[in-house]
What we know:
By secondary structure, this protein is an alpha/beta fold. The protein has a single domain (6-234), classed as Spore Coat Polysaccharide Biosynthesis Protein SpsA, Chain A (Alpha-Beta Complex), CATH 3.90.550. 26% of the residues lie in helices and 26% in strands. The protein is globular.
Amino acid sequence: xxxxxxxxxxxxxxxAGHGKRMLPLTADIPKPLLKVNGLSLIEYxxxxxxxxxxxxxxxxxAHLGDQIEEQLGDGKDYGLNIKYxxxxxxxxxxxxxxIRNALPLIQSDPFIxxxxxxxxxxxxxxxxxxxxxxxxxxxxxxxxxxSTGDFSISGTSSLVEKQAGESQSHTxxxxxxxxxxxxxxxxxxxxxxxxxxxxxxxxxxxxxxTHQGVWRDIGTPERLAALKCxxxxxxxxxESGSN
Length: 243
C-alpha cells in the first residue's frame, strides 16, 4: 500500500466561526486573520500545506468571510488552489455541518481538515498513511485549558473514550483525516463532530496519532498574547545571539 498523494489530497481549513471568545479582537476582523509574528493564523497553515506539497484547499467562511476571501483570493499567491464554501447566508454550521456543506468542493477521499485557529508545527503529510478506518485524529498532550483531555489511545492507534481519572488521555488537536462517507448521509445543518466521534469509537472505526511538537489553541485573547510573547522572546534571543 502506498501513501496518498499530497498534491491530490484536499485540505479543508475551518474558518467560519464567529470567534466570540476572542472579542473584542474579532469585532471587525475574522479570527483566522489575526496575526502572530507578521503572519495571520490561516496564512501560516497555507504556508505549511504548500511546503508539504498540498495543492487543493477548501476554506469555509461565514463571519466577516469577505475579508478572508479578499485577503487570500484564489490561492495563487500561496502556490495553492483555494475554493470557498460559503456559510454567510446560513451562519456558521459548526464543524460537521461545515464539512458536509463543503463536500462538493472536496476533490479527494479521504481529505484533511484543520481548524484555522490553531498554531502548530505538525507536518500535514504525515497524516496520509493508508487509512483502514473512517477517521484519523491528531492528538496532543492536554493543555491547561483542557487538562482532563478528550479521548485516550488504546494499543497502537485505536481511539477510545477516556475513563474517569484516566492519566493517559489526550486532547484533539483540530487536525484530522476523514472519509467522505462520514458526512454524505447528513444534511447541511448546524452540526458538531462530537456525536460522530462517539459513534466511530463505539464502532471501533477511528484511530489517533500523537503529535509531540508545537501546538497552541488560539481560542482567547490571552492565548494569542501568550503566543506573541513566545515569538517576541525568540526574536530577542536571536538578535542577542547575533550581536
